[in-house]
Amino acid sequence: MAADFAPVYAALRELMLRASPGMVVARDGAEGVMLLAPWPHPRKPKEPMWYGSARTGKAYVSYHLMPLYMNAAMQARVTPALKKRMQGKTCFNFKAVDEAAFAELEVLTRAAAEAFATPLKL
């Protein structure tokens, strides 16, 4: 029997939308929610800059936050509790609602949205 991740996804979707002011909703449906920065990719100006997403997979709900990638200051804000849930540099995985972890993730997401409020300088 497959796990019911609907409550986990619903909570993470709402968190991302609430904590990411200024980001553009590119998708919000059966495939998950995906947000883009309000400016184009600095190296590929014809493409949007990906900000983050949440989606349900077979084994967990994944929450991606691109501002963490190659940003040491932002990575340093990841708490030890959230580090345990990380896969790679920008992805957090959840199998159940975890109010404490979600609160920490909201603080991190708000900081990420603030960091992405203006275009990256590469």
Task: Give the helices and strands, then pairings.
Layout: H1 6-18, E1 24-29, E2 32-40, E3 48-56, E4 61-65, H2 72-75, H3 80-83, E5 86-87, E6 91-94, H4 99-115
Antiparallel strand pairs: 1-2, 2-3, 3-4, 4-6, 5-6
Description:
Helices cover 31% and strands 29% of the residues. It has 122 residues and is an alpha+beta fold. It has a single domain, classed as Alpha-Beta Complex (Aspartate Aminotransferase, domain 1). The chain is globular.
Short description:
The protein is α+β, with helices and mostly antiparallel strands.
Helix content: 25-40%
> Residue ranges: pLDDT <50 for 5 or more in a row?
none
CATH A-level architecture? Alpha-Beta Complex
Number of strands: 6
Main beta sheet: strand number and arrangement?
6 strands, antiparallel
Structural class: alpha+beta
How many distinct domains? Answer: 1
CATH topology: Aspartate Aminotransferase, domain 1
| The level-1 CATH class | Alpha Beta
N-to-C terminal Cα separation, in Å?
47 Å
In spatial order, strands of the major sheet run: 1-2-3-4-6-5
Query: Secondary-structure element sequence?
Result: HEEEEHHEEH
Strand content: 25-35%
- What gross morphology would you assign? globular
Radius of gyration: 14 Å
Report mean pLDDT, rounded to a whole number: 93
Features:
6-stranded antiparallel sheet, Aspartate Aminotransferase, domain 1, alpha+beta, 122 residues, 31% helix
